[in-house]
Structures are given as C-alpha cells and as structure tokens.
C-alpha cells in the first residue's frame, strides 16, 4: 500500500493557490500599461475582433475566454482585468479555505490564466508561464472533485500526484542537460557563475556579494548544480523514502539559493511546490515516526550516496589544490556526454513508465482489496479510477514528445500517435519542453539599453529610469519576488538583439513621447522629478551600455553596485510626430486596430475603482500583503 499523502496533497493544493495568487496579481497590475488600448502591445489587436465565427470555433483555434468580451460589454483590456481579478479572488479563497481547493476551482484558474496567456504576446513568453499552465492542468487532476469528510488518501491520489513528480523530473533534468548540450563555454569550463550573478535579468541585492566569491567556489557551485539537476532527479523514483527525500531537499536548496540571488518571480516557489510530490504525511507532518527505516533501505541509501560522491569527484576532477582550496574541472568530452545523454533519456523514459504503471497497479490494488466502502461507492470509485488513469496515461504519453527533444534519436522512435495527440492539443499547453539558463550571456559584462529623452533635438538628454532593472549606477536592484515586472524583463532581452526585432520597444518609445499615463506607471515613479518641467520629452533615443558589478574595493569607496561603459547607439532619435515611426507601428498592428465598443460602463467604472486601490502600492508589497492576509485568515479560522 502506498504512503498516506492526503495532507501532503492538500499542502500542495494550497501552495498552488498561492502561486496562482502571485501570478494573477503580478499580471493584473501591469495590464493597462502593457495591453490597454494605449498600452505597449494592445491586446485587442491580437484577438481577431472582426472574426464572426462561432465562439467554439474561435476557442479551439485560440483558446481564450476573451472572445466573450462583447458579451460582458467590455473592451478586451477591461475583460483581461476582470479575468485577472477573478483569478485573484478564487486563488485567495483557495489559499484560505481548504475545501475550496477542488477540481472546479483549479479548472477555472487554469482556464483564466490560459485566456490571458493567449493574448500576452512577447511579455508572456517565459518558461514559467507555460510551466504554470502545465502544472495548473495537472493540479486539476490532482484536486478532489469535492472535498470529503473522510480524511484519507484515495486510490487515485497516488497516481495523480505522480504526474507532479514527473513534471519536476523533466524540468530539473532538462535544465541541467541543456547547459551542456548548448556547448556554452562557461558551462563547460565551470565558470558560468562568475558571470551569472551580474548578468541575470534583475539581480537581487545578495547577488553582488555572491559575485565577489572566489572562482574556485563558483566552479564548485556549478558542479553542485549539475549534480542536483542531472543526477538527483533519478532518485525521485527510488523505492526508498530516504533517497527521495535527499533528492527533494537538494532541489529545494537550489531553488532557495536562486530566490536569494535573483528575482525570478514565482518560478522557484512553483518548483518548490512540485517538491511536495516527493514527500508524504509521515515525513511532512511527523506521522508514524516510530516506523524506522529497514536495514536494506539504510544500506542502499548509503551505497547510492557513496557512488554519487565517487562519480562526482571522478567526472569533475575534484581534488584539494595547492593554489586554490578545491580544484574542479570536467573530465568528459562533449561526445562522451552526447552518448551518455542518449542512454539517459531512453532510460529515464523507461524508469518513468515503470514507475507510473507500478503506482497505477498499487493504487488499483488498494481500490480492489483494501476498500471498505459500500457497493455503490465501490462502483463509483472504480469508474473514477479508470477515468483518472486514462487522463494520467494521456498526459504522461504526450509529455514524452517535448521531453524527448533532448535526444533526436529518442524523439523519432516515439509512437506516431503520441506526436499526433500532442499536436492536436498543443494550443492548450498541456505539456512543454523546459531548459533554463541554456547559455550564459554577459560574459564581458551585461548589455543594457538605456533610453534618454530631451526637449531639444540636440539635447541635453536625460536618462529615463525603470523601476527595477539596472540603470543609474548608484541604485542597486531591489528584491521583488514573487512579482515579475515584465517590461523590465523584456528590456534585458532587447539588449541582446536590435530594436528591429523588438517592435514593442519602438511602441514603448512612442507611448512615452505621447505621455500615456498607464505606460509611464510602469517606469520609475521619480521620473517626473528627474525631468521636472521637461516632461514629457519631445525626443527619445536609446544607447547600449555594458554593466559590470563593482569590486569590493570600489564598492567601499563609491558605495555603487554597478559601473558602466557606453558601447554604441541602440535606438535612433524618435519624436511623436515622426511619420515613419507611426507607419511602422500601424504595420505592426499596434496602432489603428479596432477595439470592442465599451457598453457596460457600470462594470468598467467598478474596475477603474479597483484599479486605483490595487495600484496604490508597490506590486511586490501588494502581493505579499495578500499572501500574509490569507495566512492570517487561515490561522484565525
């Protein structure tokens, strides 16, 4: 019989509600600036408002409930606000009241986030958004249809919760593997962390201090990252609890370190939430603590950890150096890794399939031989189990399609019907491929685009500051987890390319020139003081800078975290009446696109009032206020 996971599952569901609360709130406060009718990328331009087809035809092609905006009498951006607020309310209630965490609530949350994602364009093209959609759908399967007074694990719980474990495995294993398959020199020579802390999108304050660590420590940290991401995930499927828990806390440690050093919104908190799939009530709640591990479990655990240490030392050439405390260097070649990866991907699929069907069989055994219900309940449980088993088989099967892209040979050997199923439901993002930090940018300093405005063509030009990304060198980046400022994040990507590939940046420039208040609210609140009477600027240009962290000695003198060097021009000088600029934005469907006529002025007025209240404080503080409030209400009730 499987371990009791009733309470562990409930903790997972509450955590997913908290993640949804963070995600919806983070998105809500940015809707007007990003997607409003005068926003950077107006959402109504992507929806096909003139399309007169039936709702279900449009929904299957582009699954978003925003097709119903005319039914609500709202513009598309107002409808986005309504959906986001609904998501905030439902996730808050789910976090407060356990009985609300059921299938119907999580289906609604998933559908609402999917609806917003489908019109999110560039600003929602992040791995954690598709990961929230995949895990959100799995959570629909994990959640009970309705909460029962019988506080015990049902036969299908183990099977459904296994899907979370499989998602965690795919995420972590792929994230480790792609670092090496990318052929990025910094990952192969173990120097990636010497540049990571200063080159990540929005470094946390602690990142500067970690950047000052010695090179040998950075290299050893990369080795630890490889072990945690590539080796430990295989222990998720170990038959012994100690090995599963060891791998679980390894993942949690890595995520906590990422949270401390970088502002990656809800991503790391979501990954930690997945780790509950490796626990059970006995461990998490201290139940049945009198049950000791068997001699075999202790022996196998000891041997496994011993082998893990041995091969880590062997493959990464770890030894006590003379010039540095610890020396480390990869001892295998790219060809060696390619051969090992081919075997590892095929083996992991086999292990996953065996683990899945073993879990299914033990759950079925519990249902058939350990059930103490009436005949009617027994029949209902059998029907329910068969239904959930079918859904779980489907989700596991289609997940192999994106996962197998790690090895092309494995990808081509998959059954044709799996590829067909995956393609038929791809628009719902039920499963995706992952792989974070594939290659390290900013080896010689992080590139940054700095916008500058002036009232005269010849200048002088003043810097237009953003709220969170590096800008003025005397200002360190703040800690804003779990909020994601999507404009600041996208500016990081813009610096890696050219403005020709980022039409949203040209749109941002135009919105600043025309002084669109909703867009200006996404920028630094001190911008009016910096420009004084020269706001809004009549001309804007962009410059490309290289930023580097200051050394400890420089920091002690200047107290600055950054130093920067101007590299080149990035944006030409634009003005609001620049005809080529306006023509370009019209061609990009940013200007001149029809929106839905607003008829429900009462609801729109209500949304305006809620917006004023919610935007009165810093977004990350607002999110934490909601989370803390939910916790307090939970404790009081």
UniProtKB/TrEMBL annotation:
Show where the Lipase maturation factor 1/2 N-terminal domain sits. 125-284
Q: Where are the transmembrane segments?
A: 12-31, 68-93, 100-120, 126-147, 216-240, 252-279, 299-320, 341-365, 385-403
User: What is the protein's known function?
Assistant: Involved in the maturation of specific proteins in the endoplasmic reticulum.
Q: Which family does it belong to?
A: Belongs to the lipase maturation factor family.
Q: Note the topology in the membrane.
A: Multi-pass membrane protein
Protein name in UniProt: Lipase maturation factor
Is this entry keyworded Heme? no
Report keywords, A-Z.
Answer: Endoplasmic reticulum, Glycoprotein, Membrane, Transmembrane, Transmembrane helix
Is Transmembrane helix among the key words of this record? yes
A single Gene Ontology CC annotation of this entry is: endoplasmic reticulum membrane
Where in or outside the cell it occurs: the entry states: Endoplasmic reticulum membrane
Q: Name one GO biological process term.
A: protein maturation
Query: Which residues are in the Lipase maturation factor 1/2 C-terminal domain?
Result: 430-572
Q: What is its main location?
A: endoplasmic reticulum
């Amino acid at each position: 019989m499987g371990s009791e996971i009733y309470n562990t599952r409930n903790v997972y569901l509450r955590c997913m509600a908290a993640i949804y609360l963070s995600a919806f709130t983070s998105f809500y406060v940015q809707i007007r600036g990003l997607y409003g009718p005068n926003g950077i990328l107006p959402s109504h331009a992507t929806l096909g408002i003139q399309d007169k087809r039936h709702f279900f035809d449009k929904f299957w092609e582009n699954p978003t409930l925003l097709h119903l905006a005319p039914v609500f009498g709202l513009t598309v951006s107002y409808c986005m606000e309504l959906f986001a607020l609904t998501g905030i309310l439902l996730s808050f209630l789910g976090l407060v009241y356990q009985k609300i965490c059921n299938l119907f609530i999580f289906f609604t949350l998933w559908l609402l986030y999917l609806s917003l994602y489908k019109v999110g364009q560039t600003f929602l093209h992040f791995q954690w958004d598709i990961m929230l959609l995949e895990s959100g759908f799995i959570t629909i399967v994990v959640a009970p249809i309705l909460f029962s007074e019988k506080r015990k694990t049902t036969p299908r719980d183990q099977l459904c919760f296994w899907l979370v474990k499989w998602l965690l495995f795919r995420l972590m294993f792929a994230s480790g593997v792609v670092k090496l398959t990318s052929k990025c020199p910094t990952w192969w020579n173990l120097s990636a962390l010497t540049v990571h802390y200063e080159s990540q999108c929005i470094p946390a304050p602690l990142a500067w201090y970690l950047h000052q660590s010695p090179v040998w420590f950075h290299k050893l940290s990369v080795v630890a990252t490889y072990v945690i991401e590539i080796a430990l995930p295989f222990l998720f499927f170990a038959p012994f609890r100690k090995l599963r828990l060891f791998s679980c806390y390894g993942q949690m440690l890595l995520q906590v370190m990422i949270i401390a050093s970088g502002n990656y919104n809800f991503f790391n908190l979501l990954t930690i939430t997945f780790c509950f799939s490796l626990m059970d009530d006995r461990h998490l709640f201290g139940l049945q603590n009198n049950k000791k591990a068997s001699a075999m479990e202790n022996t196998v655990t000891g041997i496994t950890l011993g082998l893990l240490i041995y091969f880590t030392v062997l493959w990464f050439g770890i030894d006590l150096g003379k010039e540095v405390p610890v020396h480390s260097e990869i001892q295998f070649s790219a060809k060696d890794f390619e051969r090992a990866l081919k075997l590892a991907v095929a083996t992991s699929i086999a292990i996953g399939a065996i683990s899945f069907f073993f879990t299914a069989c033990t759950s079925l055994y519990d249902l058939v031989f350990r059930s103490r219900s009436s005949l009617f309940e027994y029949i209902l449980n059998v029907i329910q189990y068969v239904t959930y088993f079918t859904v779980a088989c489907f989700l596991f099967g289609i997940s192999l399609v994106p996962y197998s892209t790690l090895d092309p040979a494995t990808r081509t050997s998959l059954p044709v019907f799996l590829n067909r199923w995956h393609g038929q439901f791809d628009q719902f993002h039920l499963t995706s491929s992952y792989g974070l930090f594939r290659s390290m940018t900013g080896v010689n300093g992080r590139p940054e685009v700095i916008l500058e405005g002036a009232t005269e063509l010849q200048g002088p030009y003043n810097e237009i500051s953003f709220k969170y990304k590096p800008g003025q060198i005397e200002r360190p980046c703040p800690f804003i987890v779990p909020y994601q400022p999507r404009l600041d994040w996208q500016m990081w990507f813009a610096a890696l390319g050219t403005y020709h590939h980022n039409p949203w940046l040209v749109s941002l420039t135009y919105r600043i020139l025309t002084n669109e208040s909703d867009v200006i609210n996404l920028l630094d609140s001190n911008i009016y003081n910096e420009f004084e009477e020269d706001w809004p600027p009549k001309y804007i240009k962009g410059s490309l800078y290289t930023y580097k962290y200051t050394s400890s000695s420089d920091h002690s003198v200047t107290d600055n975290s950054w130093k920067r060097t101007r590299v080149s021009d990035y944006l030409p000088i634009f003005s609001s009446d620049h005809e080529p600029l306006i023509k370009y934005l019209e061609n990009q469907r940013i200007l001149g696109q029809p929106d839905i006529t607003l008829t429900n002025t009462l609801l729109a007025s209500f949304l305006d009032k809620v917006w004023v209240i919610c935007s009165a404080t810093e977004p990350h503080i607002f999110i934490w206020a909601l989370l803390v409030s939910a916790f307090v209400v939970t404790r009081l009730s």
